[in-house]
């Protein structure tokens, strides 16, 4: 019984029944010469295929909307009234087939969303009172331990609390290579275990998982209209009544009712109406498959116009994890180990981010960095001064050293040369002095990401004419990084509000600007930019919901990929509009100058709808990236410098 009900409500039921009635009518006319029965069966075919169309047209009229269904309804009813039963049946039958194919192919373009929903886990195995229980995934409580075995789906967002394994995270990040997971690593609902055994402490369940947020975002984005789509809606609202008026006018002038009805059918803007939404759905779906969430059609369209990209340095062009790179003693009685140990012990009482790489390096070298200085005084904008074993130790920029009593100007000058050299190489230098005597210079650096130069190249290939680095770092360090990665312009020493001004200035120059940042100190600039891009936001609910483009994986090459996808989608939209308009123009000319009947016109019209949909579906194919071109830039270190510690360092 359920199978019969499903078939009756299926998308192909109406065209199949209508088609069988048309075949029966033709058989009655040609084989049995039963003209009356042939007419009855042909009208029945028109009624079966046309009833859903008339209902939709009436519902639209009650909502004060005049659309394609009204044109077909008027044409079919008029054809029946004047005795053109074949034309009425053919038009409604072809329209029913076109609607069924349109629905089927549109569902295909929404495949990314369907696949996301398909990977959503149904059940979970939890540990309760030492027992393994299988429960629905949405019933897992926060903090419970979930077991993930080889081949199963991870049912919750969580942190690995035990075991090791590999997870296929393609549904979240778009990355096809499984990722190894060990204790302390984050995992996401919907990812699939490809090996090992994991114990996971649940931190997000049900609607609070990253997968659920992605599904919600893609649903909203695929339904959101682009500016072009909104224009096409307004255009259709005027175009459809204009076609009706034209058909009536030609009918009155020529006294040819068939001509008037044919003009109604031929003028149907079906391919035009669907040309934009199908491209948007396919483009956003392709992005979702590849770990790029685009907020909606409007943002997709804006992204295609991006010709300037502003990048934060720390954590975007660089790894965001500074390490010690240089230890330069400046006194004959001080070696590298002495200098590093002294700096590390002094920094032990500092809360500054640059203290950690110094302490970590000393610890890794087996040096006894234990206890805290007797006193530590941070000096804003300069560094720290610590009291250690009765001596005053200063670690910071030259301004701090020059303020120390008893400092030797000659030593300070030697230190300045080293500081300038290190800063020019992209490092953050800090001078170390004891009781005013300069002992040497230590420097830390944040490694440039290996794919940063390739990202810049691909952005240029995608049509971006200006890539600007915005950083709070000092100018020598910023320029060193810029030279290595290949950005077009550098703006250094910026505060968050300065970054906002820089983005606004680019917009005043006529650029469509995308800002890429961490979403915290870059929030003002992200909000001001035409497109705000958050990168590596898997598991970050706020970024997924608020960013115009959210790149799930911390992969720089996803940025040019997103820009390229946006441009291809908009180009696809324009192709579809051209196909739809040219088809209508050619058919109208064919009707007016003879040769195109109502049935032929409807057939060509439905073919144009399918051509538009198939063209949009090309966006669903994964586009292989071009191999990297050799570059003469060698990725090197940059620095996570803080202006407060590096100001005047050069």
Which features characterize this protein?
650 residues, alpha+beta, Calcium-transporting ATPase, cytoplasmic transduction domain A, Rossmann fold, seven-stranded antiparallel sheet, seven-stranded mixed sheet, 25 helices, 21 strands, 52% helix, disordered C terminus, metal ion binding, Cation-translocating P-type ATPase, translocase, ATP hydrolysis activity
What does the secondary structure layout of this molecule look like, with pairings?
Elements: H1 2-8, H2 13-30, H3 35-62, H4 68-81, H5 85-109, H6 111-119, E1 123-128, E2 131-136, E3 145-149, E4 157-168, H7 170-173, E5 179-181, E6 186-187, E7 192-204, H8 210-223, H9 227-254, H10 257-266, H11 270-289, E8 292-294, H12 297-303, E9 308-312, H13 313-317, E10 323-329, H14 336-347, H15 355-364, E11 375-379, E12 383-388, E13 391-396, H16 398-402, H17 409-424, E14 428-434, E15 437-447, H18 452-461, E16 466-470, H19 475-485, E17 489-491, H20 496-508, E18 513-517, H21 523-528, E19 531-535, H22 541-546, E20 549-551, H23 558-592, H24 598-617, E21 637-638, H25 643-646
Helix pairs in contact: 2-3, 2-5, 3-4, 3-5, 4-5, 4-10, 5-24, 6-11, 8-11, 9-10, 9-11, 10-23, 10-24, 11-23, 11-24, 12-23, 14-15, 17-19, 18-23, 23-24
